[in-house]
Amino acid sequence: MARIKRFEDFACPSGQTVPKPTIMQVSGKSELAMLALEQLLISLAEPSPVQAQIITNALQGMGASQIETHGSGRELIEQARLRRPSLVISAYHLPDITGAELVQELRDSEDLYDIPFILISSETNPERLETIRQAGSLAILPKPFTHEEFEQAMQSVMSFLNCDSLGAEVDADMALMNVLIVDDSSTSRHHIRQVLEKLGFEHFCEAASSEAAIPYLEQEPFKLIVTDYHMPGMDGLDFARHVRSSGLQPDTPVLMVTSDSDNLSKNELEDAGIAACCQKPFDMDKMRELIRTLLNEY
């Protein structure tokens, strides 16, 4: 088995060092991101005029020019249906709904489900932030945030919006590749699928539990398996062990996507047969490079 590839989330609690990526160094992108930001319509939900101005100044400093500020979540959603934004940024505590409820309503809608989302909040409750991660937030920033944290978050947005297919960089036809996504959160499954579609994958099977995924493994071959860690019943590690020990698809790489990778040791991952592990929210450039490497190595 190839050495485990792993990168960490760049959205850290205030005061902690932002981890550096271990599999890819993104260079020469910042200038492109600033130029592209001019084209984005950014919708901000922030009830504090002071905080709204701080975030607006940070966006303008990177080149953004189209910024709409809303004092409540409902106001943002109503306006988004009239004028669809390229990006939604929100605080967690809003006067009418929470940031978690806002992003969930976006994900559940038929017209706004795929809009990139960033949370900027002083909220530190793990359970509340987990809901944001599961909904596919591209970044979770603290208040106050550093320039470096904000720049990384916006780079992740631009990478997500401008992502190219991996088709020309892998040795097989991606249109023929099947991908299995295993996650008990339907919102998280949808976000993972959205990311993989941007990378060029076309064929997916989705399962809400490890137990539900096993019959798929018996029916057809997969080029990639993406699994969550925390799930009811058999967790992601046990599921990966089952994939390897059962001999169903021993050569298919298993990518674990979780918000809890700090608590997983390298030995645990290797023992379970995990090929790579990444943390929610993940950076698009890093995810792209990671999956490209997996497809070419397995």
TrEMBL record:
<feature type="domain" description="Response regulatory">
    <location>
        <begin position="178"/>
        <end position="295"/>
    </location>
</feature>
<dbReference type="GO" id="GO:0000160">
    <property type="term" value="P:phosphorelay signal transduction system"/>
</dbReference>
<feature type="domain" description="Response regulatory">
    <location>
        <begin position="41"/>
        <end position="158"/>
    </location>
</feature>
<keyword id="KW-0597">Phosphoprotein</keyword>
<dbReference type="InterPro" id="IPR001789">
    <property type="entry name" value="Sig_transdc_resp-reg_receiver"/>
</dbReference>
<feature type="modified residue" description="4-aspartylphosphate">
    <location>
        <position position="228"/>
    </location>
</feature>
<protein>
    <submittedName>
        <fullName>Two-component system response regulator</fullName>
    </submittedName>
</protein>
<dbReference type="Pfam" id="PF00072">
    <property type="entry name" value="Response_reg"/>
</dbReference>
<dbReference type="InterPro" id="IPR011006">
    <property type="entry name" value="CheY-like_superfamily"/>
</dbReference>
<dbReference type="InterPro" id="IPR050595">
    <property type="entry name" value="Bact_response_regulator"/>
</dbReference>
